[in-house]
Design brief:
alpha/beta, Rossmann fold, 4 helices, 4 strands, 17% strand, globular
Length: 138
């Protein structure tokens, strides 16, 4: 698919993954400019409706990034995020959207390189998959 650049919505927790994304930026780690980052207080706060809305509005992929398990600033928010993402992936499959378009990652504030690598890998994966089947409906 020539010229296709996927659009990714990245929901990043305030305490870890958003800071990791910021570190990637200030450290000038290179990754594709495909993501629109939305800071949320905790990955456990992310409602499945937010993910579905991102796809509805034309996202080709959604990244949910939070603190490593056992390190959540809200005790168990990331465990809740893990459960919600799993249920949302099941829902995506029912809706005919490949569940690989939704990705969950644990990225700490000191892992700017991991954030950049994750964005690079996810972008390449989405390029191989092509545009979201919901893209034309947006």
């Amino acid at each position: 698919m020539t010229g296709f650049e996927p659009q990714i919505v990245a929901f990043c927790c305030n305490w870890c993954s958003y800071a990791g994304a910021d570190l990637a930026g200030v450290s000038r780690f290179q990754y594709p400019p495909t993501a629109r980052i939305i800071r949320i207080m905790c990955s456990g706060r992310l409602e499945p409706q937010f993910v579905l809305k991102a796809f509805e509005l034309g996202a080709d992929g959604v990244l949910v990034a939070g603190c490593h398990l056992g390190e959540c600033h809200y005790i168990s928010g990331n465990e809740r995020a893990k459960e919600r993402v799993a249920r949302t992936k099941e829902l995506l499959d029912v809706l005919g959207v490949d569940s690989r378009r939704l990705r969950l990652e644990w990225i700490s504030a000191s892992e700017g390189i991991k954030f950049a690598k994750t964005m690079d890998e996810f972008t390449k994966q989405l390029i191989e998959m092509g545009p979201s089947p919901l893209k034309g409906e947006a």
